[in-house]
Structures are given as structure tokens and as C-alpha cells.
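Incident log, support desk, overnight shift.

02:14 A customer reports that sequence design results differ from what the structure should imply. Their input is reproduced verbatim below. On-call engineer (initials T.W.) acknowledged and began investigating.
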């Protein structure tokens, strides 16, 4: 089984590898990533995350003959008076079916939320934490949970939820 991820970020590729191998035990699963444009702002919010994830999956699928393509678009979600960080995952298969999932979400500290008006979360977290390229490592969730959850684990959960569409295909029209 060939899976293409609409990103060259190793965290996203590794999360897809883990989720697909667990979901399709007994199958050979080959996962690779390819950088594609999301078509949404660098720091998407709300519905833009769904659009970006779908665009990434579709653009990656169009460049390959993969069995599945995965688009992951992280961003912010406003719920009530709170600002959360989450990710939307879109999975497309070679038959044209779509599956969606969400990663877990977490509140953004006000000091970081204020920076998001002028930069994307990864850059804000780098400045806040005095680290470099955190989005290719544990990410904001790793920093804010003291390493209990990292970005790969957060995405893996959402990818598995998006795979529900394919793992229980018999109940879908």
C-alpha cells in the first residue's frame, strides 16, 4: 500500500507511517511525503484548516498513483471565547472517497496567541521558547504539555480518526 503525505515535514510523515501501519497490520505500508501548497494562509483558522487539509491531500494525490493521500493542516479554532490549536486531517483514497479527522486541541497561552496576528504558530513557539524549528520536533503541544504529548502523537490520533471512513467502509454510503 502506498501513502503520500502532502508535506515534507518529518513529523507529519512519521505520524502517517505509524497510524497507517497500525490500521493496516499485515500489509506493507510505504509512506512518503511531498511538499505541496495548502492554498490557505500560513496560519489558518476554523474552516480554512479543512480547506487546506483537503487541498494538500488532493494535490499530493494528483502527483502520484498512491492508494491514499493525506493532508494535515494545523491552525487555530475559536470555540466560545477560547482559542485552541488543533489540526484537520483529510485522507483521500484512489477511489475518490474522503475521510476527515481532528487532532486533539489545546488552549494557546495569551502571550503566544497575541503573536499569531503577525506570524504562524511554529515561529511564535520558537520565539516564546527560545528554540529553533519546533514544528519539526515536539511542537507547541510538546512544549505546553512538558513533553507528555508531542506533535507526532497528536497527529497520529487525528489520522487514525480520519481512517475510520476506510476502516469501517461497510457502514458508509
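02:41 Re-run completed on a clean worker. Output:
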Amino acid at each position: 500500500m502506498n501513502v503520500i503525505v502532502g508535506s515534507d515535514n518529518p513529523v507529519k510523515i512519521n505520524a502517517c507511517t505509524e497510524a497507517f501501519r497500525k490500521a493496516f497490520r499485515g500489509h506493507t505500508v510505504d509512506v512518503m511525503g511531498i511538499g505541496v501548497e495548502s492554498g490557505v494562509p500560513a496560519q489558518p483558522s476554523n474552516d480554512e484548516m479543512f480547506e487546506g487539509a483537503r487541498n494538500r491531500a488532493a494535490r499530493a494525490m494528483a502527483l502520484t498513483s498512491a492508494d491514499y493521500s493525506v493532508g494535515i493542516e494545523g491552525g487555530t479554532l475559536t470555540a466560545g471565547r477560547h482559542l485552541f490549536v488543533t489540526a484537520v486531517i483529510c485522507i483521500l483514497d484512489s477511489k475518490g472517497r474522503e475521510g476527515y479527522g481532528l487532532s486533539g486541541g489545546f488552549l494557546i497561552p495569551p502571550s503566544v496567541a497575541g503573536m499569531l496576528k503577525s506570524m504562524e504558530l511554529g515561529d511564535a513557539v520558537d520565539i516564546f521558547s527560545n528554540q529553533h524549528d519546533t514544528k519539526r520536533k515536539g511542537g507547541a503541544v510538546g512544549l505546553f504539555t512538558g513533553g507528555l504529548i508531542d506533535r507526532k502523537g497528536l497527529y497520529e490520533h487525528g489520522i487514525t480518526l480520519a481512517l475510520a471512513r476506510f476502516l469501517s467502509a461497510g457502514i458508509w454510503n
